[in-house]
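TASK: fixed-backbone design
INPUT:
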């Protein structure tokens, strides 16, 4: 019964607008300067059948050699289900897809309510300076269901929307914001919040922070996938200080002069650095983080690395938004890793601490003594579990529920 009603319910997040959505499609060919692009202006209310209308509009233009499709949205919303279907189609397109709310031809544009789900499907998402994105809860336009059926259907749709938002790389806080706004109201989200929640991505497809095993040591890996190329920064402890390796995508005719770290957009020149290798359009630089940069990074919103040309006017690199709180945790661990500050651990034979692993694959082929040393070197490590027969060390972010397991010995910081 619920599935049947789900199929026939008209879901909308705003009252009907005066104008149905229209698609204006244009091909621009500027070869040899750049590959052909297709621009799509999507204006008006989203209604049932608009996905098929969009498919027909795109099929009407020559798509040979096209590398980019650029959508601009100006819509008050409309059918939620149609918007999500449109989004799935947009996500399936082979060229690189960008979406923007508003533009020079759409002053004061909005993307509200259901429109947001079509917009989220793009690889890269932008918003013009005078445009707005607004959200609120979905609602049903039907009298065919009772309260219990409505609650069950609401849970089903909420789960679907949450997964849709996650799949398109927006943060869960965005769904929480949507869920907190009554369907008769609307919340216009500030630009900074949209960027923090990864609704507006600008030129960054995705970025992550996570711990890895680096030659038997815990290291922090930062990854940014951007329209200009992929870049990586790996931080680790070395003799009581923070060191790292920057793996940067090189532009054509890259020139190497000086190497900087950037914290909240501020440059910190690095005195001790060296080029590990340059090949296949990438440059890899090993460095020691200056103490001034380490102090600033303890409360940083962004952190990055860049290679500056000898002229100082041109550089390449990246700067990543920090969201997981791992960078200050890593730096504190490195700065407190002097032997006198390492303390000791209490051993727990035949004991395992399941879960809370700092690395996804542990650290192999080390002794139990070395396993404990590794944990003592890092503030973020609270305990270890060690598989004796396989010499397999598992550093833990916290000592959770313990269980009795033969062949496993654990240790916890005192």
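OUTPUT:
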């Amino acid at each position: 019964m619920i599935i049947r009603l789900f199929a026939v319910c008209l879901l909308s997040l705003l009252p009907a607008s005066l104008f149905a959505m229209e698609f204006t499609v244009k091909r621009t060919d500027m070869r040899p300067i750049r590959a052909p692009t297709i621009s799509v202006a999507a204006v008006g209310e989203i209604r049932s059948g608009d996905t098929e209308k969009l498919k027909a509009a795109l099929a009407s233009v020559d798509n040979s050699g096209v590398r980019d499709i650029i959508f601009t949205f100006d819509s008050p919303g409309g059918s939620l289900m149609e918007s999500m279907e449109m989004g799935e189609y947009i996500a399936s397109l082979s060229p690189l897809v960008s979406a923007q709310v508003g533009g020079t031809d759409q002053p004061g544009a909005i993307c509200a309510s259901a429109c947001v789900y079509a917009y989220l499907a793009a690889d890269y998402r932008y918003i013009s300076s005078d445009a707005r994105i607004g959200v609120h809860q979905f609602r049903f336009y039907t009298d065919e269901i009772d309260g219990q059926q409505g609650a069950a259907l609401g849970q089903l749709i909420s789960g679907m929307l949450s997964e849709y938002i996650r799949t398109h790389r927006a943060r869960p806080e965005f769904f929480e914001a949507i869920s907190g706004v009554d369907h008769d109201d609307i919340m216009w989200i500030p630009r900074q919040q949209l960027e923090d929640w990864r609704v507006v991505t600008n030129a960054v497809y995705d970025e992550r922070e996570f711990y890895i095993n680096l030659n038997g040591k815990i290291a922090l890996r930062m990854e940014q996938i951007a329209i200009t190329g992929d870049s990586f920064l790996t931080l680790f402890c070395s003799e009581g200080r923070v060191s790292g390796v920057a793996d940067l995508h090189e532009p054509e005719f890259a020139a190497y002069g000086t190497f900087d770290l950037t914290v909240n957009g501020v440059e910190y020149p690095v005195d001790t650095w060296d080029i590990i290798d340059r090949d296949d359009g990438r440059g890899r630089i090993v460095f020691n983080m200056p103490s001034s940069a380490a102090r600033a990074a303890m409360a940083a919103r962004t952190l990055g690395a860049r290679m500056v040309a000898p002229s100082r006017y041109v550089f390449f690199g990246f700067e990543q938004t920090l969201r997981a709180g791992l960078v200050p945790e890593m730096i504190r661990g490195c700065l407190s890793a002097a032997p006198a500050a390492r303390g000791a651990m209490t051993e727990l034979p035949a004991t395992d601490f399941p879960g809370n692993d700092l690395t996804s694959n542990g650290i192999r082929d080390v002794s139990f003594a070395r396993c404990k040393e590794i944990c003592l070197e890092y503030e973020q490590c609270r305990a270890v579990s060690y598989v004796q027969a396989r010499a397999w060390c598992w550093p833990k972010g916290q000592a959770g529920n313990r269980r009795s397991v033969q062949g496993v010995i654990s240790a916890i910081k005192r």
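COMMENT: Residues 1-17 have pLDDT under 50 and may be disordered.
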